[in-house]
Design goal:
Elements lengths: L1 H18 L3 E2 L3 E2 L4 E3 L6 E8 L9 E5 L10 E6 L7 E6 L6 E5 L1 E6 L2 E3 L6 E5 L13 E3 L5 E4 L8 E5 L2 E6 L3 E4 L3 E7 L13 E5 L12 E2 L7 E4 L8 E6 L2 E2 L9 E4 L7 E8 L5 E3 L3 E3 L7 E3 L4 E3 L6 E7 L5 E6 L2 E3 L7 E4 L3 E8 L7 E3 L3 E4 L3 E8 L10 E12 L5 E3 L9 E6 L2 E2 L6 E5 L4 E9 L2 E4 L3 E3 L8 E5 L8 E5 L6 E6 L2 E6 L3 E4 L3 E9 L2 E4 L3 E3 L8 E3 L3 E4 L5 E6 L3 E5 L5 E3 L3 E4 L3 E9 L2 E11 L8 E2 L22 E6 L5 E5 L19 E8 L2 E10 L2
Parallel strand pairs: 3-11, 12-18, 19-26, 28-35, 54-60, 61-65
Antiparallel strand pairs: 1-4, 2-4, 4-7, 5-6, 5-9, 8-11, 9-10, 13-16, 14-15, 14-17, 17-18, 20-23, 21-22, 21-24, 24-25, 24-26, 27-29, 29-32, 30-31, 30-33, 33-34, 33-35, 36-37, 37-38, 37-41, 39-40, 39-42, 42-43, 42-44, 45-46, 46-49, 47-48, 47-50, 50-51, 50-52, 53-55, 55-58, 56-57, 56-59, 59-60, ...
């Protein structure tokens, strides 16, 4: 244990001696506090350190503390490189949009050596959003009770708000709303520390309203027995007040603002709970207690099914009531005529349209016969169907879709229009037409492609009456057309064949290098032309053009020249060039003189020679460059500065034009930069970085797998 402790102490002492004196000072801020927004978020500080520079691989990090000044989890604002010898430098940076506090600090941290600088004093940093703060929807209010009222901002954008009353601070709160109980002029602004003051709400004037109470005159429960009208009257009558009446908590519409009383007929439809709201000139509202108008009969008839229903086809509607008088007689009526089979049934199933009601007779003189509200049963008298593609549809662009009945609406005899759900479509006979001809399908939808282009309609038949839908034209685009080369053009076969995707009945317009060369119904093209081909296919008013393909006579690799198209020769030596792959040959010099008509040509002089080789209908031209090589020794210094003197590493002729000789060049790190069996004295090329810091390379000349020469190559300017 003692030995380990001693070792740790030595390491610590060495580290201390190495970093002694280096210190990163606290940043000097170019701002007192940071107020950022959507349009501005750039700040600057000066950073400095003492004694000695930092290592070349050092990186500085500008770090931001949390709002309490803690760097336990700092935010890196910026990485700084290249200032390791500066001792003092300025940097601009941006702060996160989430900043909100008054205790932020900034510091600089280094990595080589690892040093954390001093932090700045605490400063405010707040993001101030560009928002429009609206208080109480721009509405002034009146206080009508001692409980006060609540005014609220339209948005919650800060953690605290300063509320003002009559220009003075009323309170600071975390809520974006305020309960007011006193008149005054109120507004609010979000708290952003030293950044506060640029954003505030509108002014809301709170006035003192007059509190009052209203009631409906008379008893709280009214049970009329006669046919006299029922009058409900408010206890306050002022033509400058606004009166709003409610039945069963639903507003009674179409009443003037000044309606201090209402008259109601003694009918079942008027039974219910009523109240009135009165608003005075100061904006204060008072609501009365409820007054109930009840059926003044011991027998009560209550409707338990909807009063309005629609029947279609084979579906029915069920009408029902219930009564508390078990001994009462029940009789149903349709269009004023009694339905004998319905006697004493509380439920009636109907399959015909009409107006239905029920009479309940209790035998009580005051009660008489109690008539229920009317049930109105409708059956559409006409229908309107709409058809259209069910998916996104663009003429000549969309290639496939579904055509469907997307809407079926019925018109009732009262003029109302209803939507028929798909569950009821089985009650209709559907017939589809395309271009006036009936189709076999009777489905509500079916798929369509370009083969089905045309104008469609749908006939909808209900109980012998037929209704026609809108006309929908379908023009779908063609599928992608692909070109394939069925037969290449060669020297022995001058005709090529190109095929395109087969589309029955379509017209094919063939283009060669943008020129129309053929048109017809065939999806293949036989041609002697070379170049770029494409086809335009048209069908049913739509057209599509394929991507281009190339049809060329490739002769590049049909004829080869050995030892190559660039040959070097030594003085007083002859090199034989041998051509293969052709049927006949002609060797010509630069003046046009025919030097040989065989595959082999003996070359004794440098120059440019041309070979014409014929294969079938093709004549292939090859250019052979012959250059003199009088190098005796392998050079170990070259100057690739493009002055045409010693620019290339040139080997003696005995290493050139020999396929058994392999040349390998490596850089000083051992990476291979060249490896070839056809070295033609052309290294280094333009891709080599000639300004490298280590311009020394190593070469290896191998023959039949064994090294015969090796050495170094130095590049100089």
């Amino acid at each position: 244990m003692k030995k380990i402790t001693t070792t740790i102490a030595i390491i610590f002492l060495l580290f201390t001696l190495n970093s002694y004196g280096q210190k990163i000072n606290a940043p000097q801020l170019a701002f007192e506090y940071a107020c950022l927004n959507d349009a501005f978020n750039t700040f600057e500080a000066t950073f400095s350190f003492n004694e000695k520079p930092f290592a070349s691989d050092n990186k500085f990090y500008i770090e931001l503390s949390d709002k309490n000044g803690s760097f336990s989890n700092p935010t890196i604002l910026k990485t700084v490189e290249g200032e390791n010898f500066s001792f003092e430098f300025k940097e601009s940076f941006s702060l996160p949009d989430e900043v909100y506090g008054e205790g932020y600090k900034l510091r600089l941290r280094a990595t080589s050596p690892a040093i954390v600088g001093e932090a700045t004093p605490a400063f405010d940093a707040f993001f101030v959003p560009n928002e429009n703060l609206i208080l109480n929807d721009y509405k002034d209010i009146s206080l009508c009770s001692t409980s006060g009222a609540t005014i609220k901002l339209n948005k919650d954008i800060a953690k605290e708000y300063i509320w003002y009353k009559n220009g003075e601070i009323l309170k600071v709160s975390s809520d974006n709303f305020l309960t007011v109980s006193e008149p005054g002029e109120y507004y609010a602004e979000p708290y952003y520390g030293n950044c506060t003051g640029s954003l505030y709400s509108n002014l809301v004037i709170v006035g003192k309203g007059e509190n009052f109470e209203v009631a409906i005159l008379g008893n709280k429960s009214v049970e009329p027995c006669s046919n006299s009208p029922i009058v409900l009257e408010a206890s306050i009558d002022n033509e400058n007040y606004i009166y709003t009446w409610y039945k069963n908590e639903e507003k009674i519409g179409e009443l003037p603002a000044y309606t201090p009383k209402i008259e109601l007929n003694n009918e079942a439809e008027n039974f219910g709970s009523y109240r009135v709201e009165v608003t005075n000139e100061g904006g204060c509202t008072s609501s009365s207690s409820e007054v109930s108008i009840l059926q003044n009969k011991s027998t009560i008839v209550e409707v338990t099914s909807p009063l309005n229903a629609v029947i279609i086809g084979d579906n029915t509607a069920t009408l029902s009531i219930k009564t508390n008088n078990k001994g009462a007689e029940i009789l149903w009526y349709k269009d004023g005529q009694p339905l004998k089979n319905s006697y004493n049934n509380a439920t009636l199933i109907v399959d015909k349209e009409g107006e239905y009601y029920v009479e309940v007779s209790s035998g009580n003189d005051c009660e008489g016969d109690i008539k229920s509200p009317s049930f109105k049963i409708f059956e559409p008298i006409s229908f309107a169907a709409e058809i259209k593609p069910t998916s996104a549809y663009d003429a000549c662009i969309t290639t496939a879709s579904n055509l469907a009945i997307t809407s079926l609406k019925g018109t009732l005899n009262n003029g109302d229009e209803i939507t028929i759900q798909q569950d009821f479509f089985h009650n209709f006979n559907l017939k589809w037409l395309k271009d006036g001809t009936y189709l076999k399908t009777t489905n509500t939808s079916f798929p369509v492609t370009y083969k089905d282009n045309g104008v469609y309609k749908l006939e909808v038949t209900y109980k012998g009456k037929t209704f026609e839908s809108n006309a929908q034209e379908i023009i779908l685009g063609l599928p992608d057309v692909t070109l394939n080369t069925e037969k290449e053009i060669t020297c022995s076969e001058p005709q090529g064949i190109i095929s395109a995707t087969k589309i029955e009945g379509a017209t094919y317009n063939w283009y060669n290098n943008e020129n129309l060369v053929a048109s017809g119904l065939e999806n293949t093209l036989t041609t002697t032309h070379v170049g770029d081909f494409k086809v335009e296919v048209s069908f049913g008013g739509c057209a599509i053009t394929s991507k281009s393909i190339s049809l060329n006579r490739n002769t590049e690799d049909l004829v080869e020249v050995y030892p190559g198209e660039k040959i070097t020769i030594s003085p007083d030596r002859i090199v034989e060039a041998n051509a293969t792959g052709g049927e006949s040959y002609e060797w010509i010099d630069a003046e046009g003189n025919i030097l040989s008509k065989t595959a082999t040509f003996s070359i004794a002089e440098e120059g440019i020679y041309t070979l014409y080789a014929k294969i079938g209908e093709c004549v292939i031209e090859k250019t052979v460059e012959v250059i003199s090589n009088d190098v005796v020794e392998i050079p170990n210094v070259i100057s690739p500065n493009d002055d045409s003197v010693n620019d290339k590493w040139t080997l003696p002729q005995k290493f050139i034009n020999d396929p058994e000789v392999e040349v390998v060049i490596c850089d000083s790190y051992g990476s291979t930069v060249l490896k070839t069996n056809k070295y033609d004295n052309n290294w280094p090329d333009a891709s080599l970085n000639k300004t490298t810091e280590t311009p020394v390379f190593y070469y290896f000349v191998n023959k039949k797998g064994k090294n015969i020469k090796k050495g170094s190559i130095t590049l100089v300017n």
